[in-house]
Every structure is written in C-alpha cells, then in structure tokens.
Amino acid sequence: MTAALTTARKRFHDDLTEKHTLSLSPDGVASNADSSQRTSVSIALSIAKDLHAETIPKKLTGQRVGKQFEEAVERFLSGTFPLFQSLRPGNWAIENVGGSRAEYQISRYEPYTHLADLATAIQADRNLAAVLGNSYEISPDILVLRKPESDDVVNNVSNLVDAEAGRYAVIRMANQQRPIVHAIVSCKWTLRSDRAQNARSEALNVIRNRKGRTPHIAVVTGEPSPSRLASLALGTGDIDTVYHFALPELIAAVQNTDNDEAISMLNTLVTGKRLRDISDLPLDLAI
User: Fold this and answer.
1) Partners of 238 in the β-ladder
2) Considering just the CA atoms, what is the radius of gyration of the chain in Å?
C-alpha cells in the first residue's frame, strides 16, 4: 500500500503539471528553465519529462506561475503535515498569505503581534520608515500556525497547569487566543540573485523581530540550476533548509548532464544537509 506522503507528492506534481505551472514550450524549454543557460535548459527539460509536463503554446506569466506554485505548496502541506500527529500533536492551520499585504498579516499571530503597533506608528510618521528601512518587513507566502490549547487539553493526562503558574505562556488559551507561528515557508518557483537575497533578508527579519521562539524558516523552489540553488542554500544562520519540488528527479537530471561542476555542487548541497525534497518538509516541521 502506497504511503500517504508518497501519494501526496505525486498529487503535488500532478497539480503543477495540470495547471501548467510546470510546462514545456513548443521548442522544448521548461517553464522553470533559464533559456539563456544550456545546463538549466537541459536539467529542467529532464525533470519536466519525468513529471509528464505538457507542451503548451505560450507559458504562463511569471506572476501567475508564482501564485499557482504557492497554492500547490499550501495544498501539499495542508494535506500532509496535520497527518503527523504521532510526531507533532496540535491543532494546526496552514495559510497562504502571499497574495495579501503579508508583512501586516503576520502581526495577527504570536510572536509578532507587536509589529501591528510598529506598522501603525510608521504610517503616522513616515520618517520612521526612512530610519528603519525594511528591517521590520516580513512578507511570507505560507504560514504554518498552531492554535493555543485549552487547559482541558493540557491537563488531559494529569493536572499540569492551573491559575497559579504558567500564566504568560502563549500556548495556553487561558492566556491568549491568537495562533502561534510555527513555520514560515517562502515559495520561489525559480531563483535569480535578487530572489535569493530577498529570501535571506526576510529570514533575518523573522529572526530579529520575534518576541518568542524562532519559527521554522523554509524555502521551497523549483529552480533547476545547482549554482543558483547554492546561492540560497549554502551557509547557515538564516534559512533552516531549502526544499526542491522534485529533488530525486533533479539529481538524476544533473547526473545526466556530465557537468562535473554542477554534479559536485548538487552533491555538496544534499550531503551538506542544505537541500532536501518537498516530501521531507512535513517531517522536518514535526521537529
């Protein structure tokens, strides 16, 4: 019997190909390839064929592709992560906030509620914006949220909390009722240098502006080029891990290029625990 995670991964890829997020042009260029780079075109074409992408007359606009990719990742996480109650029990919600003014959306949740007051102050005094720059902006695509628990749930097995202790912990509904940000997932269908740096800057803002534990910080991408993946995945201190939408297919495609530099770089990313498959993400979120 096929595992639920394997089935969900196949459904995720079908979602991308059926909506033509991943597609081929009439001259055989995949929608996530950089047509000016031969290696990118070769790798992307191999992945697209493995996932049975269709040839369409004209590829979708970048904005539409990005939105559809976000939606596909959100559906994948909504259908998988809550299944792992044995590893990470809780009352979970997955929200795609990428289409809204997301830097203010996150202020609805712990540990970022103070950002709403900051946004109000900046709107009242634009000089503050000049001083702070973008150091307070957090514009995630997908939020993984945990709702606070009632004391009945906390005390289910034994009497653990009462009105005398634990009065400020955000996990208790008796103290506050806002959901808690468990993870922030950024979706990048492709990576160019500016997109990689935007993801890093946002990750640092997530870390610096929290008033509580740091959420998981992940990036999901469909980028086929190992060198561009490295521009985001190499190094530590900001992003937890980068997740590829089709890592086994990427590895096979890169091996077939006979490009020693690309093969070595991808091996470094994978063995160095900086690049994983989309199917690893729900399990990593359970940590």
Assistant:
1) none
2) 21
